Amino acid sequence: MKRTILACAVMALSGMAWAAEVLPENGLKAEMDGRWEDAAGVYEKVLNGQPGRVDLWERLGDIRSRLNQHNLAVKALEQAASLSPENAVLWLKLSRARAVAGDGKGAFEAAGLALEQDPDNIEALRARAELATWVDERKAAAEAHRKILAKLPDDAASRLGLARLAAWNGQTDAAVSDYKAYLAQKPEDKAAWMELIKTEGWRGNYPDALDELEQYRQRFGEDRPYHEQQARALAWQGKTMPAIEIVNQLLAETPEDVDALSTRATVSYTHLAGDSQMTLP
Fold it and tell me: 45, 56, 202, 279: most buried by Cβ count inside 10 Å?
């Protein structure tokens, strides 16, 4: 029993000793001079003898990130997080490092571990939502966005995130509602206007789609996205000839434009279903 108590006391004192350790002066000076590799070398040398220094692993991870050495940053921050698993900040840093290194699933997992330690951390919730979308964990993404909105009801980014997730999942009514709420806050977002108009079309609400397309024209003018959607709108009304003329003009300018080709396919389908006398070139 005494040995156990003594061992715990030694471990506690050891932890206090690590906490009392100051950063090596030559490492700090190297950082202040912008000599990042030198600073990293100093910290690595200390860590060889003191591998439990969470502060140095974290600092080393930050330096490696600064130097765009993303895999090395991940390794350093993994060490830091494993030594201090209750530290949400370290998990969030690791999440960012993994994301930059191209490890979406690992980044998503680390963001989740950050939230386990700090469930109300808005920054971690944002990371979780974005990363969940990246790795196609749509349920987790929606859950994170809803948690953000529960805390920040006017958060435009999460409102848009929910709109897009609903549209991708075919929940067009919910998507339209969220797009409109978002655009009430961010009316100058051209891309979101177009997403709303297309979603209205997908759910067959052509009158509102045409009205919103006119609002787009009044705000942003007759740009290329407007003409692409105008062609679709004309096709919805059965006016396939002017729709085809618009699409052909767009493709004459950029023959391999994916959006224009998609618009042409939509118009072509409507044309063949309705007015079979027109032949597309």
Answer: 56
